[in-house]
Known about the structure:
The complex is a heterodimer of chains A (596) and B (209). Chain A contains 7 helices and 29 strands. Chain A is of the alpha+beta class and 596 residues long. In chain A, strand 10 and strand 11 (164-170) form a beta hairpin. The longest helix of chain A has 28 residues, at 453-480. Chain B is of the alpha+beta class. Chain B folds into 3 domains: 5-70, Tetratricopeptide repeat domain (Serine Threonine Protein Phosphatase 5, Tetratricopeptide repeat), CATH 1.25.40; 74-134; 137-199, SH3 type barrels. Chain B has helices at residues 5-17, 21-34, 39-55, 74-97, 105-134; strands spanning 2-4, 137-140, 144-147, 159-162, 166-173, 176-181, 184-190, 194-196. The chains are: A alpha+beta (596), B alpha+beta (209).
Amino acid sequence: MTGNRAVRIVALAALAALLSAPSASSAADRLSIQIALDRNRVAVGEQAQATVFLRSDGLDLPQFAFPTVPGLTVVRVADSQNFSWVNGRLSRSTTTLFTVTPSAPGRYTIPPIRIASGMERAESAPLTLEVGGAGSTAPPPAVPPGGGTGEPSPVWGDQSSPDLFVRLDVDRRRVYWNQPLIARFTFYTRVRLEQEALWEIAEAPGFWREILGEPRRQRVRVGGHEYLSTQIVVAYFPTRTGRLAIGPGKVEARVLRRVDTPDPWSLLGMPEVRTETIPLATDRVAIDVRPLPGGAPADFRGAVGRLSLDVRVDRKEARVGEPVTVTTVIRGDGNLAAAGDPDVRSTIPLRSYEVGGGTTTDRSGDRLRGERRHEVAFVPEVPGAFSIEPVRLTWFDPFEERYRTQVSDQIRIDVAPSAGGGDAGSGIAALGPPAALRNGTGPRGSLDPVPPAGAVALALGSGALFAGMALWARARESASRDPRHRRRVALERLLRSARAARAGTDRGGAGAARVALLVPEALGIRYEADVEGRSLEDAIALARARGAPPELGDEARRLVSALERLAFAGISGAAGSDDPLADAERFIERLAREVA
Amino acid sequence: MTADASALMNAGTVALEQGRVGEAVAFLTAAQRLDPRAADIARNLGLAEARVQVGRGDESAPARLGPPPPALSVAEAWWLAALLLAVAAIARAVRTLRPTATPRLGTRVIAIVPAAVGSLLVVWLTIVAFGERAHPEAVVVAPLLEARRGADEPQGPPVLLRAGERVRLGRAAGADVEVRLGGTSIGWATREGLWRVSDAARYTSRFAR
């Protein structure tokens, strides 16, 4: 090893560091879920705290449901969500706290929680909760492997002045459940590295963690030598009691080293540089996590830290129907996500709505500070006054090692009548008084928009009549366009003329002459021949050309002859016909029947 | 159920004087359905609606109340449609039974125009009737009514409705009914806080004087 030789080539500085800790899921996993209990054994009536930590890198965070275990009552207490941008990838995590209350002694197994996001799947390990009878005590906490010292891990050089080393420092080794501790992972180097630092953080079992700020770089002197240090500060929150561990933190540094040139003439005498990968790791640091002392007030919801409560209202005078918003703000150091929101109640029953809230966390310093805001709107419905009851916040102060409670003052809200209520505003008063009451009855009817029966009958009848008339007219118009119909109508017209001639007073003279003209016309209509202005013989010839039988022509001749005798000589009975008018009428009638 | 416009008008006026604007709007809206051209009903309904507007902080409350619009009640509109159809049918029958060599334009117009107007009116009234049956008009009578999202619907903040606001009702489930505004469901509210306008006649005895 020639690690402590100075490298003098142009700077190709870099740092590759990896901080990792043993974890149920691999650091390469993009989706992970862990569940932890703050204790493995409780008595009936006691509560255990379950913490579910869900993490995804570059994926949507899926929803999960706490498994149903007969005999265990599980209540979701608080949620927190965290976003961080690490190594160019968005990392999201949620921490959800549940209280687990057993109803009977026994051994309960909480099955794995399975989640999926896209193609990624993950599941937690099953947990076992021992429940003893009332008054039984919790067993001593489990002791994890390890138990580090936090001493540096040197590389190269001698123990007093290595070129590279990493170390892990924690601000305290004994904490209470949910009390944050600060861990600093620091990488020291006084040699040139190939790459810029890349950090990837893994979880420690039994903790959930928040990274505080960006990696911090500075030049420091250690053992009389100047180093470039890169430090990541992480806040760890223990989610179960017992002996837990953080670390080891691991760093993989790519160091540039100059080596002796085998051929002094090669590369024009420039020194040759080679990259060497150096893995480094801190020790594991053991942490004793103590359960919170007994005797917690009934309204304690798991808040641990140094907290304060602020309660305010957006108005102390309101009208009926106007919402009054009460805002509670919990500030301080600690796990605010686990603090839960205090109950806000009014002295009289009112409609209330949760209208807002959220947790703001400041990760820029060496402490995880923040505030948790919760807004509740109360809507008064009657004039008068009501009050917001004193709001209580109870938390455990790990520095004073006792539970503390802060109670706000009662806040009185005066409620005036609504402007739309019995007291009309000046604008309403300007509209004048309402119209007087009526005497007697007014129009009567159904309030449903159904049609009156009479109107329906009239409309339906009218519609039917309209449709019937329209159909009739249409049928008649259609029939009038039929050639057979037209011929039949024409023959019927001739028939009516013949009957009129026979019934008239001049049946012996002019009537017979008119009917004599009708016979060839009827023949032409029957056989669709244009006989207008033609002689009888021409008409017969045209009819025969269109299919008339010869005897029909003979009959027409006899009829016309008899009619002419009657018209011009007053002779009837000749040519085999006593009543030529009646014969002509029958002749036309027969032709009309043939057409029909 | 047959209702009397005067009884509804009186109940609405009493409710208005008692500051019960929700009930007043419901009664007077029902009265106006039966007697839409009555000036007293229109005036008191305008007063009640102005109080509703002022109550919700609406600055556009009217400065004065105008005369009632020349509207028809639903029953009158149905009769008008039926009469138009009858006129059209008679004109058509005359044209059909007494045909002329050259049809007259007057008889054709008398047959066609009333038929078209009457038919359109019938279609519109039918749509109104089906709309009322599917989503009846209702008025909020509770001082404040909360319309919450259903369990199987996208969650959102509840909508607070004030007394006198008009909504449409949808499906019913248990003690709750779906509340609709502008053709959109806004949530579910308790039935007790809403009166259907067509049911207003049932409550007139509570506001008798």
